Amino acid sequence: MTQDSKPVLPASSKAGAPPYRPPQVQALGQWRAVTLAISVPVLPGSVGGCWARTRRRAAMTGKAAGVLALALLVGCAPAPAPAPTPLAPVGLVEISFDGLGSTQASSQVRPLALKENSAGLDLSPLSVSVTDVGVRGSGGTRYITATYRVRNAASDGTPAPSARSNLTLLAAAVAGNVDSTALRGMTTFSGAPVPTAVARTVLPTHALDYQPASDRVSPVSGGEDLQVFLESEVVPGNLTRGGVPAAAYSDLGVTTVFPYGYVVRTPAGGRTLAANPAAGQYDGRVAISVRVPLQANDNAQTPTQGSQRDPWAFKMTFLVVEDPTTRVTQSPEEQVLPDSQVVARGVAAGASAVNILPGSAYAAQASLPSRRVCQVRVADLAGAAGATYLVNSCP
């Protein structure tokens, strides 16, 4: 019998009929032996894989056989998924990118002083890098990274009285953003709005750089700050302030939160920022990185040159949270690299697990356990028919 099926009893077991008795196969002294064929589903975490089934036969008394069958079914019931650990919001910020495609690209931060989230985070711009790889219109991509220094303090400079770990800039949509994404104010070099659809092609990454020897982009050491989450971890009820869950995203001043962001680290790779930092004491770093396709040259569009239609400037909005769980994320670009690289990063961070995405062949479970995140939404509401994803390969 399968996990979801119910046993079908003979007619004699129905109401008003004599009680059903198990068939007597043979007598063994004073014991009656019954041979049962039991199909036992082997669930995740047990020997044999997720969907393997075994058939076992046992000779025992009818009563004992019934007890065994019930025990097997109960033992094989799926364990409830662990409840996600709550994330604690500390503020809203807006990160701007400007001068992309020039030699003077820049980035700035602005706290979104909403009554729902007024504390924010003390961020100071450190560097901006823009790298174009490939042929425009044939897979050519622009990789953009803005690196910030991070101080354990509110956006007005007030130091935090306690140490904080895993501060994360979670991508979020606010009113006025482009096409239900975390982006807003997307313009070309001329100041004209970028076509709306382009916003959904801006995807999160680690900080990446082109490696001529391998002819591909690879993560920049110290810039692997992309973090992904499960959808259940970014629902309003898992975003708590003072231990009180938010009833709706609007309680936090946002329209939705996306299951990706960028986690703050120390230069040594740790995740904890000390309490009460002195003025100018920026113990953390965070690299906010995205990739966007280079626009193709097209005589049917105005202007015809793709470079004149590339995003020159845009802004991203983030809900800053403190995450009690330390993890690292293996990005799609890391999947061709040795597992030892992400493991080393996880050890430095004190991580309990590595997030892996579809396509990963990660096999270093003994060194650092993994969990599979099969879907990462980057636009629209969770479950929306038109949502856009970084990856979307859930069974």
UniProtKB/TrEMBL annotation:
Region (Disordered): 1-22
This protein's UniProt keywords: Membrane, Transmembrane, Transmembrane helix
Membrane-spanning segments: 31-52, 64-81
Protein name: Secreted protein
Natural source organism: Deinococcus multiflagellatus
